[in-house]
Specification:
This protein is α+β, with helices and mostly antiparallel strands and 148 residues long. It has a domain of 95 residues. A four-stranded antiparallel beta sheet has the order 1-2-3-4, with no helix packed on it. Helix 1 packs parallel to helix 3 and helix 2 packs antiparallel against helix 3. It starts with a helix and ends in a 10-residue tail after the last helix. It is found in: Cell junction, Tight junction; Cell membrane.
Length: 148
């Protein structure tokens, strides 16, 4: 249950982070270099002097469909993880809930574990899908070399 809880917290943190995709612009002068970060909820620009500016995406309708699907899968993984946490804690042996029927208690614990697995698979599909999109854009011959 501890590992499942830590995985669920990791899904929440990774969903909120803006470093899902990084693009760096290094021109002739290193002083004008900048790095652009794109996440599920915002995009950030970091200048070579250390300044970071973030902007939340303006409209849900302007986003690409793959980004919207990734968002939906990650939010579903978070919500499923929350449900799994409650179900699995209910099925733990140390809890007083349903202590008269040990078979049902064991089934609750197993059901919580299954829900945790489904939440993990949803997060795995979302991150793999987004990573595939980033890799295809990186190896696209029409992408300028200095923006990869």
């Amino acid at each position: 249950i501890v590992l499942a809880f830590l995985g669920w917290i990791s899904i929440i943190i990774s969903t909120a982070m803006p470093q899902w995709k990084m693009t760096s612009y290094a021109r002739d002068n290193i002083v004008t270099a900048q790095a652009l970060y794109e996440g599920l909820w915002m995009s950030c620009a970091m200048q070579s002097m250390g300044q970071i500016q973030c902007k939340v995406y303006d409209s849900l309708l302007k986003l690409e469909s793959s980004l919207q699907a990734t968002r939906a899968l990650m939010v579903a993984a978070i919500l499923l993880g929350l449900v799994a946490l409650f179900v699995a804690v209910t099925g733990m042996k140390c809890m007083k809930c349903m202590e008269d029927d040990q078979v049902k208690k064991m089934r609750m614990a197993v059901f919580g574990g299954v829900i945790f697995l489904i939440a993990g698979l949803a997060a795995l599909v979302a991150t793999s899908w987004y990573g595939n999109r980033v890799a295809r854009a990186f190896y696209d011959p029409f992408t300028p070399v200095n923006t990869r």
